[in-house]
Write a structure and sequence with these properties.
5 strands, YaeB-like fold, single chain, alpha+beta, 5-stranded mixed β-sheet, about 80 residues
């Protein structure tokens, strides 16, 4: 698996700004684009047939995304706790 781009929906970008998550999100995004998936804890969410991926922004927040080809499209940020 190779991810070349990560795109965010407007709702996800607004949520990141509102909760001051831009810096940690950019750091994790750089890890994923560099191919360090385990550092970002990029995983497929269950049930795996839904084809939804998620990764950790920090201990509290997770980003949910769809993988379309080589593009990861983030559609939601969620409070994990």
């Amino acid at each position: 698996m190779k991810i070349d781009r990560i795109l965010e929906t407007q709702a996800a970008a607004t949520y990141l700004k509102k909760h001051n998550l831009l810096a940690p999100y950019q750091k994790v995004k750089a890890h994923i684009l560099a191919g360090h998936y385990s550092g970002a804890q990029l995983r497929k969410r269950r049930p795996k047939t839904d084809d939804i991926w998620y990764f950790r922004i920090n201990k509290k927040f997770r980003a949910f995304a769809y993988l379309e080809g080589v593009t990861l499209k983030v559609f939601a940020i969620d409070d994990h706790q």
